[in-house]
Amino acid sequence: MSSFFPARGSADPWFRLGRLEVGTTVAVAATVVMSWIAWVVLGGGLGAALGYYPAVLGSGQIWRLFTWPWANSLGLWPVLNLFFFWYFGSELEAQIGRVKMAWLLVGVWASLTVAVSVVGLAFDGGLFGIGMIQFMVLLVWIAEYPTRRFFFAIPAWVFGLVLVALQIFESLGYRDFAPLFSLPLSLVLVALVARRVGLLTDYAWIPGAPGRPRTRPAARRRPDREQQRRTSDRARLDELLDRINETGLHGLSDAEKRELKKLSERLRAR
């Protein structure tokens, strides 16, 4: 196989571009960069066309369910969001592999989409860009490594608690009630997904741990036909030899003598 697409294990990248290893996190980050380029070329209307809010489903704009992560604009905070997504996502991917990381990101997307859709039945809300996916990936990383140190030696769990509190206070300040309900629902769903792909193993109370592969009880090994035939030949040969010991060779009929010869030759050939 070529060096461009080498044989891969779960911890290997999908492919390599020179020295750049392209795993799931890098591939998603690259698509976000491309969405920035598209935003610069096509203008701000692109984000409005790709973003998702539940009210548009009634008009048949189903594609927004899938395109909202790429409703990005270019600026300082989007760049920081992408950097943190790459940084923390790469560390999670190094632990669980590129395939499970892909499923984790799909699960995060689905969790956010479901949460906003459900809450959207009562409150206006929406999803635009990689920001919320990055936020969830960061919180999963914090839950996986709660005692790791951030800036000024602050434990990760304290940093995560502050981030969630800021989200809540901001929503309260703007009287934006949709995130107040969609955020906890999203956290629950993302935790289930993370547990399912092999993360958050220290939290036994979170359901959804990956099931162990079923092992069938070992079947009783039956001797094959060759073994059965060999055993039968030996038993018959022993029977004929016993008769020779008792009555001598003349005690066997001509047919039994021929059988004795064939049995001896067949057993020697094996």
Automatic annotation (TrEMBL):
<dbReference type="InterPro" id="IPR035952">
    <property type="entry name" value="Rhomboid-like_sf"/>
</dbReference>
<feature type="region of interest" description="Disordered">
    <location>
        <begin position="211"/>
        <end position="234"/>
    </location>
</feature>
<dbReference type="GO" id="GO:0016020">
    <property type="term" value="C:membrane"/>
</dbReference>
<feature type="domain" description="Peptidase S54 rhomboid">
    <location>
        <begin position="60"/>
        <end position="171"/>
    </location>
</feature>
<feature type="compositionally biased region" description="Basic and acidic residues">
    <location>
        <begin position="221"/>
        <end position="234"/>
    </location>
</feature>
<feature type="transmembrane region" description="Helical">
    <location>
        <begin position="70"/>
        <end position="89"/>
    </location>
</feature>
<protein>
    <recommendedName>
        <fullName>Peptidase S54 rhomboid domain-containing protein</fullName>
    </recommendedName>
</protein>
<feature type="transmembrane region" description="Helical">
    <location>
        <begin position="26"/>
        <end position="50"/>
    </location>
</feature>
<dbReference type="Pfam" id="PF01694">
    <property type="entry name" value="Rhomboid"/>
</dbReference>
<feature type="transmembrane region" description="Helical">
    <location>
        <begin position="150"/>
        <end position="169"/>
    </location>
</feature>
<dbReference type="GO" id="GO:0004252">
    <property type="term" value="F:serine-type endopeptidase activity"/>
</dbReference>
<feature type="transmembrane region" description="Helical">
    <location>
        <begin position="101"/>
        <end position="119"/>
    </location>
</feature>
<dbReference type="InterPro" id="IPR022764">
    <property type="entry name" value="Peptidase_S54_rhomboid_dom"/>
</dbReference>
<keyword id="KW-0472">Membrane</keyword>
<feature type="transmembrane region" description="Helical">
    <location>
        <begin position="181"/>
        <end position="206"/>
    </location>
</feature>
<keyword id="KW-0812">Transmembrane</keyword>
<feature type="transmembrane region" description="Helical">
    <location>
        <begin position="125"/>
        <end position="143"/>
    </location>
</feature>
<keyword id="KW-1133">Transmembrane helix</keyword>
